[in-house]
Structure formats: C-alpha cells, structure tokens
Design a protein that fits this description.
CATH class of the largest domain in chain A: Alpha Beta
Strand content of chain A: 25-35%
Largest sheet of chain A: 5 strands, parallel
Radius of gyration of chain A: 27 Å
Low-confidence stretches of chain A: none
Shape of chain A: globular
Number of domains of chain A: 4
Oligomer: homodimer
CATH superfamily of the largest domain in chain A: FAD/NAD(P)-binding domain
CATH architecture of the largest domain in chain A: 3-Layer(bba) Sandwich
Mean pLDDT of chain A: 96
Number of helices of chain A: 16
Strand order of the largest sheet of chain A: 3-2-1-7-19
CATH topology of the largest domain in chain A: FAD/NAD(P)-binding domain
Helix content of chain A: 25-40%
Chain lengths: 569, 569
C-alpha cells in the first residue's frame, strides 16, 4: 500500500533518504520540508566557496551533471515534493501529523504521515560572549551565511580576520582567508592543540607549524572574552591581549537540532542528540532520524558518538530510505573517520587518538612512523607521518591518524585501517595488511606495515621510544648533564649538532656502533637520534645487546623535529 | 643458545628475514649467499631506472638514507655476512649444511646451518621460440639485465621496440620506452586483453585505449612465432605479420626458482612453487621459504596462489625473521593486491576479477561505477572507474578493480577493500564503508560506497545492466530494429546522437520521463544511457513503475564508452 512519507530537513540526509525510498516505492508520496530556501547543497564545500575555488554558490547545489537540485528538480527527476521556507513546528505522534508554518506567509497547516524522517541537522554552537552579535561576526552555518561572508570579503572590506576554534572547519576557513584572499588571519583555540580530539598533540604541532609557515597566527590555550566595535566588529579581547579583526568566524563546533524531537517526547541523549537504533529508528518506530541530529555507536569505545559529517548523513540516509520501504538495512556504527586539507597538508584520522583513548580510560600507547609515501628511489615523493594508537595489553588497534602531503596518500592509509577497525584488528594485522605496491604509489614495506611492526616492537619492549614533546623536555633540561644525545646518523648529518652542542650531542653512526662501543657513555641516559627513528632503533638493539639499556629512541627522528618546527641545528 | 642461520638469496625476502632475525637474536650468526654481485635492490624499480626516472642503478640498492646496501653495509650496520657471486648447489638436510660454490674461483665449500631460509626468488618465464637468444632480446630479470637494456637505449641504438606480454611489467616497460625515450613501441599479448587475470576485459579496454592514445601499438590475441635478425634482433614474425624491432623485451611472467628445494626433497607444488605453512616453514621445519619462490593461500578462493611481489616478500621476510628467533608469527594468506602506473592512469586491483571468479567456478556478477574521485564541485577532479566483483547468491565481495587518474585515489579505494576481504564482506559492507570525507579528497557518497550500493541494486534485480562490450554488440546489431537507445541526459548531450542516429537513438531526459511516458516505445528493448549510468538507472526504475520492463542500463554510461574509445557521436 502506498505510504505517505514526510521528511523534515532537505540538505544531506533528507534528500538521500527520500530519493532512495522513492526508487524502492515509486507509488508512495514523499514531502520534504525545509526552513531554508537553498536546499540539498554540499555544506562541506562552503570553505571552498569562500576561498573562491568554487566560484558560484549554486555549484554546491548542483548534481554532478550540472542540474540544480532545487524544488523543480526534485519534483521532475525524483517525484518528490518540497516545501521550502517552511518550518516544522511540532509533531503529533498519536495522530501522526506534523504542524508546519510557511515562513513567508506565516500560515500554519498540517502534514499527515505514515512514517516521518527527522533530518534536522545541526547548528553552530553559540559562543556566549559580549559582542557576539556585532556585524562582521559569522558562523559557517549554511549557504546564506557563506554568501554573506564571501560578499564581505570580495568587496574588500576585510583585512584582518579572527577564527575562533581550531577544529577542522576553523582550519579550512583560515586557509581560505589567507591563501586566496591574503587576509591576515589568526586562529584562537581554547585547548592546547589544533584539531583537539581528532589527532594527537604531537601531530597537531606539525599542523600548527605548517600553518605558521603559511603566515597564519595560531594562539593555543587562549580564550576570546569579548568582541568589540562600534556597530561592526573591530577587535577581540582575549585573556592575554587584543586582536584587531574586521571579520570573525566562530567555529567552535556544532550541536544537534533536536528540539522538535525532544518536544515530541522522543529519546534524546544527555548531549542533546536524538537516540536511534541500528535501523535509524527513534524511540517511535514510525519516526526515523539520521545525520547531524543523531548519535550513533562508536565501534571502538562501544559508547555513543556524535559525527556531524556529510558522508555519514548520506550513508544513513540510504539506510533510512531502504527501511522506510520495508527493508532491513542497518547502520553498523561509526569509527569516526575524517580528512582535512590545510594548505599543503592532508590530515586524516580514524578511531581514537592517543589522548582520546586515555580519556576513555584505555591503557594505550602510540607508535609514530615518518617515512616516504612512495618508494624512496622514486623521484616524486614526500614524507608522511602516521601514528597508531594501540591498547597496551591486547595489542588491539584503537585508531590511526596521519599528516602528509596533499593528495590521497595519507587518507588512503587511514581508510585502509578505518575499514577494518570494526573487526578489532591487532598490530600484527596492520603489519600484515596487504596493500598494493608499486614504486610510484608506495614502498615495498608500506609505511602502514612499518607502523604496525613498530607498534609491535614497542609493545614487546624492544623499541623504547620518546615523542617529540618528551624529547623537548629532555633537551630543555640538558644542562643537568644526566642525558647524552647520541646521533646515529652519518657524520655529515651529525656534525653541525656536535659542533654546536659539543657537551650534549655525540656522534656514532649506527653502522660504526659495534666497533666504537667503547666510546658510548655508560653513566648517562642516552637519547638515540637518527633521521626518522629507524637507525636509532637498530642502535638501541645493539646497545641492549651490549648491556647498555638506559636509552630511549626519538620516534620520527630529526625529520619529526623539523616538522614540529624544533630546529636545533 | 646462539644459532647459525643460512639465507639463500639476498634480494627482498632474504635481507628482510635476516635483519629482523638479527634484531631479535643479535648473538646468533647469519650468512646470506647470492649468485649475483648486486644484492638487496628494489627490483620493482627497474622500469623507472630504464625510463630514466631513477638515474643511477645504485639508487635502487640504497637505503632511504642513501647508504648502499652492499656487503659492507650488511656487515657493519646489521652484523650479517654476505657471500656474493656464490651459488648454493645443494642442501644436505640430514646433516644440515648447504654446499656452495664461489662463481669467481669455482671453489666449493659447505655452510652448516641450524635453520635455513630459501629466498631463491623467481626467474622470467622463457619463451621457447626461434631467435630468442639473439642479441637485443632481454628479460627484465635483474639489475644486470636492466643496465644492459638501458645502455643500449641510451646509446641511441633503439628505434623500435617490441614488448612481448601485456602484464604489468610489460606495460611499465612500454611506458618507459615510449614516454621517456620516444621509442616506437608495440606490445604483443597472447590473450584477448591487457593485464589478463588481474582486471576485467572491460577495464583492460580502458587501459588499451589510453596506451594507444599515447602511441603505443597494442596487438591482442597475437603470438610471436619467431624473432629474426643477422646477429642482432631485427624483426618479429607473428601469426599475422612482421614487426620491425631492434629491442625485444620478453615479459611473459615469472616462475619460482624451486630447483634447489625440489632437489632437497622439499614439497613443491604442481606449479613449481615451494609449499609452506602459515609460519612460512617448508615441509622441513628447519627450512623456511618465502617471496617469489613460494605459494600462499588465496583468502578468497581458499586455493594456493602465486604472488611474486616485492611487498609480499618483505612482509613474509619479517615473519620468517620472527619465527627463526622462536616467535610465532603467521602469514595470513593473500588477496592478490596490485597497483600499476601506465602513463596518466593508475590501475589497481585486489581479489578476483569477474573473469577469474567465473573461471574459479563462482556464480559472480560485476558492478561498475564511474564517478568523480572528489566532490563534483571541487575544481580539481577526474573520473574514476571501479568494478566490484560479487558472488550472486551470497552478495559476498570477491574482488575489486579500478582505473583512475595518476595519484593515490584509485589505489586507496582498492586498499580499503583489500584490507577487509579476509573478513568476507558483503556488498552492504562496501556501501557502508566509513571513508574519510572532505571535498578535496572524495565525494560525500564516495565512489566506493556508490559501488557497493550499485552492486546491491543489481543483485536485487532493480538495476539491470549491460557492460560496454554487451552494449557494443547491441549497437552493432542496431539495424535489426529490435532495440532503441534511449538517452536519458539533457537534450544538449543527446542532440548530436539523435541527429546522427535518428532511427535508433531517442532522447527523453530522465527528469522529463514521467511527463513524456507516451513517447517511450513499448515494442522494443530499451537500452538506457546517460553520462555515467546513474540517471539511466533512475529512468529504469520509473519505466518499471510504468510497466515498461524490457530495458537495460549501460553501466558507466557515455563516460565509459569514451574511455573505451567507442565514440559514437
């Protein structure tokens, strides 16, 4: 029997669910309502519209064959009715209808449903500080906000910008403002790292250094206390000073739009997200929800997680479409995969970062490998840094994050691990992962395999490592005299360090270590260093064999120090 | 107790096993023997040395920190002894020693072992035709052969080259000869497709068309019967003609070097590969083997497979190293992952191709999707073609192959599936794969998710498809008049086809189909066409709804026809 389906929200999940359903049940009727007039757009493309990479806002709303996904398109191509500039006011679950209001005419009416889909999405978290409503202060909330920001920039009204929040949208926006418009941009982040919760502090430092090289100012552990200006914003006052800014982008995260669901008595989580089962059904079996307004199970922690991502919404939308038509599709849960371009870097992540894992109460370690993304003899190549997060006792992989050159190399490695996370792989599984090999694409021992092997060696206690931040501490305390920095590279690499820090820096190339064992100081802790941490690991093995065991190996080596911006030479 | 380890073969697996072992048991002794004088090189880099991308042969033999992996390096850095230009003549398993011969002095001696590693690799299959021993005929067998080929080319002695064999080494060589040296090159392949057994005939046609655009001649289903020339090769005589060539590269595959193992009474498979268990032990528990001389279990078919790849050898080498030291590492088996660069294309594959699956007796179908590799609104993007091979009844994924632009995008998708193949994923798992999304890297509904969904729709009978080769058959028979080609794109796209083929080609854009249903011919089979197969699928759903069910949808659409070189307009 034909059904009456109502979908509230017409951006990512809503249209996907509606179209999938209509392909399965063409005889049924679907009505979609949205508060906005611009619908079904690629919201993740907003930073690229603002940068100018995408010239026209309508491009974000087009199909891949250049048809505008507007009301007419949905009617003609999909046989779906859309009511734009229409707000859903409340849901009567007993009588199964939605009360809607036309935002132009202010008229109210009702839409009966057999099944209802909540695709109400998310809204930017509001920063509750004085001056937040000044002209020139924006959130990247929807296409209309994006158009307003770009109008202001392109009319030459912006010289200095402030981005509040160092999450991935904040960084994308900082790049768009700096790289394409030459705007002097500062990112203020309240925590002690960029991309908090997504990648480790160590990797985040690489991103920070890169952005600083691109002339973006980054202020960590800094809080904006108020925004000031006569009618337009002119400056921000932080805990430690004042920043001039004629444009302020607030990107401090998003929160689920669940008011409608809550008012209708549906289960909503403590964090404000709509609760759904694996079929994407809410606590009312005739009401489905998905996308930015719901929580789903994190497959690593087993706890609910919040993933406001367009890709997630699309996949969940299809599942809802199938189930509306009587199917039995299930959303398996999420591992939290992410990729972001920041200038010349690609940053990708899945699962838990080391800090997140520890916050979850897991006894975790992380292994870091820095290696060429392709065969080292292949002319076009670049260094990639990957970090694997592993549960200590079980060797179970909890997550992986990486920073590499632009291109699909880094995200490809992350996706290969993301795919298997739900099967609970161990470090051995990563070491044995069968990745396709050819010199223009990878190394015979791919960085991912090397990472699994390194983690295995760390867990076995054979590779005793320090991270750059721990190295930095040891380095700062070098005058105490209880540590020697032993450079395991060739003399040519070590020489400038030895000349500059004769007291603390010693050179014995790894391949000379056996012959020169007598030169190794036996009364001090050794910090072993090479270019990437591989030869220094070999040196550690040799020293252990000789009974010199008070050593640690700098993960990622000098290459990592450089990426951190910690250039000692 | 310290052990005596002998390793026969010092290219990929041998050094890896030896070094891993020495890191675990530094007090034990390892001797490695090799017939050649150049050892531990990246054999997969040979085509890039020949093309000139890698300028010096020694680069293939260097570590990533530019140390030459020669005898001295292995002694000093790894404490491993190497005997080069030394042949292992036979193995005495009872008394546990190897008889070796110094190829310079012709002296024979013995090497006692506690455990032995066979890393004897593979050799090029020999083509048994007259003229094969003429000067100018080469196999890409080792560094010395590579140096000889490059010497000949760089001294200007080569104008026309013939590559016998269209496998991946043959194609890499054809590119190297054409692209960097401007040599007129012909590839002769005995089967009816390039890369046989690795990708489908359909995808192989895309590769063929691309190579032809790059001015490589490709002859399929052609056999070289003899090579002719006075002392140097001058021409090849094939079943259908004569080809001038002053350089002939024979790349008709490799076969395992297992003579030594066989002579020692170890189990050798019918195909000539050494048989090993999951610990990489031969039928003698004190003798390990791995790399190009062994067979391992294919995780899809459950049958033994042969994977002569440097990456496989490295991973197996580490497992052998661990087990030599009393560890319990296991090689899980292989899915057969592969990637190759051919001019501007990257071609990647894992698991079974559709033809291979059917040859294995599996009831398989394949789904093909052609889609942008990144968000369609992102300025830098290109079309990627992926094909998923699926068991019909179970929906189990058997393999995936793809052709896309150069870069890591295609291989990244293949690796994501390769990683999970051993867990026996279904099409739903591919549709739900959580891939990291951001517009510069992927689409919100990634091509891989779309591929899983398309396969699901095909299995459900909702998307009834034809491949390009089937389309080609229907097209050739169009004068019969029982088929109408229905173009579901906008009029602008369809117009040139309608003008040219008025009788056979009809235009009804998908979004006008409901309104123009009366125009649809009901007495003929409909071949539905759009740019990529997405709108034509929607049209098929709508036609089905209207009771017009004799239709098929061209997978990959006009984009695929173009990539095939089948340009009808």
């Amino acid at each position: 029997m034909p059904q009456n389906i109502v979908v509230i929200g017409a951006v990512a999940l809503g249209p996907k669910a509606a179209c999938r359903f209509k392909r399965l049940e063409p005889e049924s009727k679907v009505v979609m309502v949205d508060r906005d007039d611009i619908i079904s757009y690629g919201g993740c493309g907003i930073p690229y519209f603002i940068s100018g990479d995408v010239s026209d806002p309508s491009h974000l709303q087009e199909t891949s064959f250049h048809m505008l996904r507007d009301k007419t398109f949905f009617k003609d191509a999909k046989d779906i009715d859309i009511l734009t500039k229409t707000e859903a006011l409340n849901i009567n679950r007993r009588e199964k209808y939605v009360v809607i209001k036309n935002l132009d005419t202010r008229e109210e009416s009702t839409l009966p449903y057999d099944k209802l889909v909540l695709a109400t999405g998310s809204r930017p978290k509001r920063l509750d500080i004085p001056g937040i409503d000044l002209d020139g202060v924006f959130a990247v909330s929807n296409m209309n906000a994006a158009i307003a920001i770009k109008d202001r920039i392109s009319s030459g009204q912006v010289e200095k910008a402030l981005v509040i929040g160092g999450g991935f949208i904040g960084l994308e926006m900082a790049e768009a403002l700096t790289d394409m418009w030459g705007i002097e941009t500062t990112v203020v982040e309240i925590t002690d790292q960029l991309l908090p919760g997504l990648i480790s502090r160590n990797l985040a430092q690489i991103v920070k250094h890169h952005m600083e090289e691109k002339e973006v100012s980054i202020l960590l552990e800094e809080r904006v206390e108020r925004l000031e200006g006569s009618d337009r914003v002119e400056r921000a006052v932080t805990a430690s000073g004042t920043l001039d800014a004629d444009l302020v982008i607030v990107s401090v995260g998003v929160e689920p739009n669940s008011d409608l669901a809550r008012a209708a008595g549906l289960d909503v989580s403590p964090k404000g997200a709509i609760v759904v089962n694996s079929k994407m059904q809410t606590s009312d079996q005739d009401i489905y929800a998905g996308g930015d307004c719901v929580e789903v199970i994190n497959l690593i922690s087993g706890k609910p997680g919040y993933y406001p991502l367009g890709s997630m919404a699309n996949r969940q939308g299809r599942i809802i479409g199938t189930n509306l038509a009587g199917g039995h599709a299930e959303f398996p849960g999420a591992v939290g995969s992410l990729v972001v371009k920041v200038f010349d870097l690609s940053i990708a992540a899945t699962g838990l970062s080391i800090e997140t894992a520890r916050r979850e109460g897991l006894d975790a370690i992380s292994a870091l490998v820095i290696q060429f993304d392709r065969a080292h003899f292949y002319p076009e190549k670049d260094l990639m840094t990957l970090e694997l997060v592993v549960e200590k006792t079980s060797g179970r992989v909890l997550g992986i994050q990486g920073v590499g050159p632009m291109g699909e190399g880094t995200v490809g490695r992350i996706n290969a691990v993301a795919s298997i996370l739900k099967y609970k792989p161990t470090v051995e599984d990563i070491g044995n992962l069968e990745l396709a090999y050819s010199p223009p694409f990878s190394a015979a021992m791919d960085i991912l395999n090397a990472l699994g092997n390194t983690a295995e060696n760390i867990l076995a206690g054979k590779n005793r490592v320090v991270d750059v931040d721990e190295f930095d501490e040891l380095w700062k305390q070098r005058e105490r005299g209880d540590v020697v920095f032993l450079d395991c590279r060739g003399w040519g690499n070590a020489e400038p360090f030895v000349n500059k820090y004769a007291q603390h820096w010693k050179s014995i190339p790894q391949d000379e270590l056996r012959a020169r064992m007598a030169e190794v100081p036996r009364d001090k802790k050794l910090v072993l260093i090479c270019n990437t941490g591989v030869r220094s690991y070999e040196a550690q093995v040799t020293l252990d064999e000789m009974g010199i065991t008070d050593s640690c190996n700098l993960q990622g080596g000098v290459a990592c120090l450089k990426k951190w911006g910690l250039d000692l030479a």
